[in-house]
Specification:
The chain is of the alpha/beta class. The protein has helices at 28-37, 53-59, 65-99, 111-123, 129-138, 146-156, 158-163, 224-238; strands at residues 7-12, 41-46, 184-190, 202-208, 214-219, 243-245. Keywords: Endonuclease, Hydrolase, Nuclease, Nucleotidyltransferase, RNA-directed DNA polymerase, Transferase. Residues 177-249 form the Integrase catalytic domain.
Length: 249
């Protein structure tokens, strides 16, 4: 309220904001921002970070004494875990050396020993199946279904399933933009919902990508015929779009 209606200068060390008023192609998110930003009259001037000390200090949340204490306690836990893991690794190496025969061959481990070896290899750092198999091979051992057993152990690990984030197979997000209103519509079905007096229990949801204008149409069922009958009046009012986007649902 203190800046609205007045011309002011915005100094920032974020150089990309200098081009805020000159961008030609805006995605939907920037378009929403501009609805608010363009109510203000201001210029953007780049100020190098080394000269922008005071705003940087005010915008950063420095750790408190409590945070530092918790971090120190966490570091101690990590050190204790590393010491325990190193001790377990030494015990495993000694067991492997003890099992070595005079002709430099090792006795095949039993089923119980296989599980223990893989479990210890996994708990050294909650490694995946590939690293577990490599650790076993580095110790001169191999047996049938080694990789499958390693995969099973990794899948049964609660910590790994809780905190590991699998990113393979996902494509990067790309903004969806439209050239003009009515050019690109996205549609989807919502329901089943509580049945109305007219026996409608589904909703056809339509959003114009350019303007975010929303249209809702009630449906008795989600058959293709019912969807088409609801789309035709909309197209008569707004015109036939170039792109009609749906997730096939």
């Amino acid at each position: 309220q203190h800046l609205w209606g007045r011309h002011f200068t915005l100094y920032t060390d974020h150089k990309a904001l200098v081009y805020l008023h000159t961008q030609a192609n805006l995605n939907a998110m920037l378009t929403k921002w501009f609805d608010t930003i363009l109510d203000y009259n201001f210029d953007v001037v780049h100020l190098p970070g080394i000269d922008n000390v005071l705003p940087d200090a005010l915008s950063r949340l420095f750790p408190t004494a409590k945070d530092l204490g918790e971090q120190e306690q966490g570091d101690q836990i990590k050190l204790d875990f590393a010491a325990t893991a190193q001790t377990s690794q030494v015990k495993l190496a000694r067991a492997l050396l003890k099992a070595e025969l005079e002709n430099n061959y090792m006795e095949p481990p039993t089923e119980k020993e296989r599980s223990e070896i893989l479990t210890k290899a996994h708990l050294f750092g909650h490694f995946g199946a590939e690293a577990m198999v490599k650790a076993v091979h580095n110790n001169g051992m191999h047996w049938t279904n080694l990789k499958q057993q390693a995969l099973d152990i990794a899948k049964r690990c609660v910590q790994c399933q809780r905190f590991n984030i699998v990113k393979t197979g996902y494509n990067p997000h790309k903004p969806i933009s439209a050239k003009q209103p009515g050019d690109h519509w996205a549609i989807d079905l919502a329901g089943p919902l509580p049945t109305t007096e007219r026996n409608n229990k589904y909703l056809l949801v339509m959003i114009d990508i350019c303007t975010r204008f929303l249209i809702l149409r009630p449906l008795q069922d989600k058959t293709a015929e019912s969807v088409v009958q609801a789309l035709i009046p909309v197209f008569c009012d707004f015109g036939i779009p170039t792109i009609l986007q749906s997730d096939n649902g």
